[in-house]
Amino acid sequence: MTDTGAPVQGFEWACHACGASGPLTEDFSCPRCGDPRSLRALAEVPAALFHDRPKSLWHYAPLLPVRDPFRAVTLGEGATPLVPARRLARSCGLGELHLKNETLNPTGSFKDRQVSVGITCALERGCDTVAVVSSGNVGVATAAYAARAGIRAVLFMHGQAGAGKIAQACAYGARVLRVDTPAPSEAFRLCLDACAAWGWAHLSTAGMYEPWNVEGAKTVAYELFRQYGGDLPEWVVAPVGGGGLLGGVWRGFLDLKRLGLVDRIPRMAGVQAAGCAPLKQALDGGFSFQESLRHPWPDPKTIAGGIADDILFDGHTVLPALRTTGGAAVTVEEGEIEAAALALARQEGVLCEPTAAVAVAALSKLPGAGPDTRVCCLVTGNGLKDIAFFQERTPGPVPVRPALEDVRKALED
Ligand SMILES: [Zn+2]
Which of 349, 334, 356 is nearest to 111 (CA)? Predict the structure, then answer.
């Protein structure tokens, strides 16, 4: 991969483990402690940026690490609605609940934010092929944005990837490989080797390998600031696989704090299935990021395939996000995930995939939360991606003849 352009201005590397910072160089590992570092925006931006209604996440281009936002690869990602969920709030015993509906992104998940930013950066570095490891959504997003950019996408789908997502990715024309392993970390090794061998851009949403595209997740925080009129809720709740979403949203809040727009960052709750919970394990064990990597989850098992990651690929941001905000790692059982997906659809009219439903399932388990607590739940992926899940758990249509009597009888049950 050849870097042909000018360096990105207005950013530095920042280490959340030891606090060291430094100028952007090729190597993003921290020279002091060895952890992966994250990009930190240095730009001063007018407060009006956060009060104007965005048309897409590129509204926030001054805080994204690209040289020329006018050449961004975009399908209109971001700028998703924040909708009140009063019935669900009541049934979870919360004072106020809003859903940040990320299912309305162009390919149906929040990953569009990261991939739009990541592929724009890759093009600026002169790449003509992008590759990702994926359980589904980031593969789908990469396929769509590569089609948009007119470049090749190679997807390394691992054992957790569902048939619907694979079909969606294939429809966009990506080269889809099914890696014969249940462990995402093994698929990563293969993808990284291929990128190194053939000069492809690595776009997996895993900050320990690729610090650029995770920047897209920060824009959720910027949007929430505007949508809440600056008065952020007490909790922000999201599913955690590698941790890039929650870690990214936290870093977005840090930007808002640095810019003097907020003095308090919401408590961050990261939710995992009990059958794959390396975040909970790391938090309970007091692990550093490096220690968490030495304790992969041995046998990920959950219907929430999008977050069945055996290690925390963004542990260097999601662990401090939870630890510094008084946050929590919450786990939910399989039955709770199923019930939450159906409750969200029936009580609020929002259809989410099981992976997204884990956050909904955790809403009644937030430590100390009650009838005075304000909560924002990120709904990360569209239920249409896994329609078989709903077909298996809902009654099918009742056959009727074209006669009122049949309709009356059918509705009696
Ligand atoms: Zn460090």
Answer: 356
